[in-house]
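Re: that backbone. Tokens:
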């Protein structure tokens, strides 16, 4: 292979670094109506009266819409395959507002100044209602977030709006009580992770217009174009056939753009006015009314025998979905399925969860998708178990980790670990960091102290038996190939990776494969870029399409040479008789495909996933802590990943480094806070701190490749996995350095300093 497993440059690298107009707002028509939203100042209220007459008189105002002007069929904004697990609990605008920042009215005008003026003039009278701001109080509370009768859950996920439940379930294996009874060592603790913002560079944005056939066109920074089409068709009451979605370049998504945060608002303006409309969220809006990670509280009980074999795991997750249920039932499932599955010796387990509505901003998808929260909890508990046993935390994992060929426990994506080098990842990570020399801590001459911590993780590769990837390959007259994709490149480089696969199979230069972005009218169906699906699922579709197109090219070339396909050879540039007596070039074959031909040189293929083979990772952190101030410096972070065959090692490394940086932010910096009335306090990047390059220290990445038979070229996935290890690894490193255990994120210098002082006082009094 010339390109697979090679670190070639991204296809769009030059356009991006030279600042060419490739993003949504760059492409929007100059005469778009500017759309903005009036937002609720209350966490929970009913709109008693809303006066828009004065605002409509502002020069340049084209349209003001309230809850009286929108369809009344509820829908979900979650970009998921139908029937969605998420409940139908949304209206475009509702008389009931459910969080501070919820949409009250849509204002569209010729200029931003006119819209801003109109927003200030709209008068709203609210009936302020009691709110639920603490997710511990939500279940079976007399206050109902969704009392409406047309609320609907289309999938049996244990949802009940009259109990404030978005989802609820319990599963298990074996006799938990009996198994814990024979465990010599047991740890039972509770871990808490707050909501986190994706904080991608490009905020949420969409523009809309009517095409010449009267259909609605949405150009949007989205991860899920085909889901946008279906969801808007329902939300607007016009059907999916009347909707076309185009996805340009995306400036980051990380799961946030798997939810339809902006699309519906300019869409209904265009439907009402017939004019193009554009909505671009400010950073402030992206902070207060977007789709952050679900806050979760995870209770873990884990037990091991005297030799350190983990026999029993009991895990219960309470998840805060906020005001609406996007991705609530699905994220919570991963908190158990992607954590418990790491351990192979478990004789009994139980995994239960409740997902509850509250009067907070609705949560959504974020890289790791619930696995991040569950892995933080279980991996932290396993480290505490190792401490209780007096065992090195790497050794307890080596004794219990899943290995290739082992049956999975509590993971439904595959019956066995079909490809797994997790043991090699652990060995390599320990070697890279110098674990045996550094564990658990080192006192430094300057009074500071260093500690190391370890964690391991698994994720998945697409949603098995659900996700579909599609690809269209066409040979053009000049001998080039066009690669049509339904998958969304959001900076990950998937257009490049998929082109690498096609180029190798077609034996052509990478520059001879031209990928184009998603347009739901012409692109093959694809579930979208989420769930670590693109390389694994869409890659299989690309490989299948390339193989079939190659056969067609050979057959056409053979026909032109008056020969049979088995009488010719193909080298990527021409089809030639085996006796070398005659040949036709690829451009000649391309031209021949345009006339007098009953077999077009174009192939469309789709592929699904029968299993979801997990990628694996081991992460080890080394921190240096000032015991006086509690400040944390990340000295070194090593990550060793098994993603099957890395199609492009450079892009895989960048994905890993980026995910680790986000995990560091979740562990040490990102601290969403609310006022007593439910307003978001961290409404800018001045108040909501994400790590800079100066904060993340040295990140070193290596690969221990396996070969996944079900994947293209042996590939699995990498996108989500890489955020999962920093939180537990850093928490353990901080504990080893200070002796203070933290079970709530983020672990800030203030918490560390106070923890050290408290521990010092306790030690002195004992």
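Recovered sequence:
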């Amino acid at each position: 292979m010339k390109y697979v497993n090679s670190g070639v440059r991204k296809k769009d690298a030059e356009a991006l670094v030279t600042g060419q107009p490739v993003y949504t707002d760059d492409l929007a028509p100059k005469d778009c109506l500017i759309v903005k939203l009036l937002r609720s100042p209350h966490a929970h209220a009913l709109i008693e009266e809303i006066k828009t007459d004065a605002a409509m008189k502002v020069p340049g105002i084209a349209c003001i819409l309230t809850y009286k002007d929108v369809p009344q069929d509820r829908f979900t904004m979650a970009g998921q395959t139908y029937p969605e697990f998420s409940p139908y609990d949304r209206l475009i605008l509702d008389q009931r507002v459910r969080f501070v920042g919820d949409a009250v009215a849509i204002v569209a005008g010729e200029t931003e100044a006119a819209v801003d003026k109109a927003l200030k003039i709209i008068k709203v009278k609210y009936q302020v209602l009691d709110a639920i701001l603490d997710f511990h109080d939500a279940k079976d509370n007399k206050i109902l977030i969704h009392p409406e009768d047309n609320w609907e859950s289309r999938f049996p996920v244990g949802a009940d709006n009259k109990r404030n439940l978005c989802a609820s379930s319990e599963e298990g294996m074996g006799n938990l009580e009996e198994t814990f009874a024979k465990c010599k060592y047991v740890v039972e603790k509770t871990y808490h992770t707050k909501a986190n913002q994706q904080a991608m560079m490009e905020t949420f944005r969409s523009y809309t217009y009517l095409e010449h056939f009267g259909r609605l066109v949405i150009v949007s920074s989205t991860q899920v174009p085909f889901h946008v089409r279906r969801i808007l068709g329902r939300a607007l009451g016009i059907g999916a056939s009347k909707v076309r979605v185009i996805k340009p370049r995306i400036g980051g998504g990380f799961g946030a753009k798997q939810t339809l945060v902006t699309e519906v608002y300019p869409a209904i303006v265009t439907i009402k006015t017939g004019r193009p409309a554009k909505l671009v969220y400010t950073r402030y809006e992206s902070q207060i009314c977007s789709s952050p990670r679900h806050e979760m509280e995870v209770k873990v009980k884990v037990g091991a025998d005297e030799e350190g074999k983990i026999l029993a795991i009991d895990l219960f997750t309470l998840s805060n979905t906020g005001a609406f249920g996007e991705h609530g039932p699905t994220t919570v499932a991963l908190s158990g399925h992607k954590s418990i599955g790491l351990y192979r010796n478990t004789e009994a387990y139980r995994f239960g969860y409740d997902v509850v509505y509250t009067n907070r901003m609705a949560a959504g998808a974020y890289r790791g998708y619930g696995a991040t929260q569950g892995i933080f909890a279980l991996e932290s508990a396993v480290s505490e178990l190792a401490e209780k046993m007096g065992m090195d935390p790497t050794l307890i994992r080596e004794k219990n980790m899943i290995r290739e060929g082992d049956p999975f426990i509590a993971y439904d994506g595959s019956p066995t670990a079909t490809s797994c080098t997790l043991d090699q990842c652990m060995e390599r990570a320990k070697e890279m960091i110098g674990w045996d020399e550094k564990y658990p801590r080192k006192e430094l001459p300057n009074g500071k102290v260093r500690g190391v911590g370890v964690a391991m993780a698994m994720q998945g590769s697409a949603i098995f038996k659900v996700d579909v990837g599609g690809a269209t390959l066409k040979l053009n007259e000049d001998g080039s190939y066009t690669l049509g994709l339904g998958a969304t490149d959001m900076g990950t480089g998937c257009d490049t990776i998929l082109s690498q696969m096609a180029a190798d199979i077609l034996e052509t230069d990478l520059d001879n494969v031209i990928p184009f972005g998603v347009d739901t009218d012409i692109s093959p169906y694809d579930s979208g870029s989420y769930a670590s699906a693109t390389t694994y699922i869409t890659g299989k579709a690309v490989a299948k399409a390339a193989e079939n197109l190659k056969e067609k090219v050979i057959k056409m070339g053979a026909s032109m040479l008056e020969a049979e396909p088995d009488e010719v050879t193909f080298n990527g540039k021409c089809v030639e008789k085996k006796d070398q007596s005659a040949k036709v070039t690829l451009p000649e074959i391309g031209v021949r495909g345009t006339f007098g031909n009953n077999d077009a040189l174009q192939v469309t293929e789709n592929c699904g996933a029968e299993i979801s083979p997990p990628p694996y990772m081991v992460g080890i952190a080394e921190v240096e802590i000032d015991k006086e101030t509690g400040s944390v410096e990340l000295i070194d972070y090593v990550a060793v990943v098994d993603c099957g065959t890395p199609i492009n090692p450079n892009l895989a490394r960048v994905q890993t480094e980026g995910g680790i940086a986000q995990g560091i932010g979740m562990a040490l910096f990102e601290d969403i806070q609310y006022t007593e009335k439910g307003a978001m306090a961290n409404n800018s990047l001045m108040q909501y701190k994400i790590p800079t390059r100066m904060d993340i220290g040295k990140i070193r990445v290596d690969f221990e490749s396996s070969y996944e038979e079900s994947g293209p070229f042996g590939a699995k996935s990498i996108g989500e996995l890489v955020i999962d290890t920093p939180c537990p690894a850093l928490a353990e490193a901080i504990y080893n350095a200070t002796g203070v255990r933290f079970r709530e994120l983020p672990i800030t210098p203030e918490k560390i300093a106070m923890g050290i002082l408290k521990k010092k006082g306790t030690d002195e009094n004992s």
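The chain is about 25% helix and 25% strand. The two ends are 66 Å apart (CA to CA).
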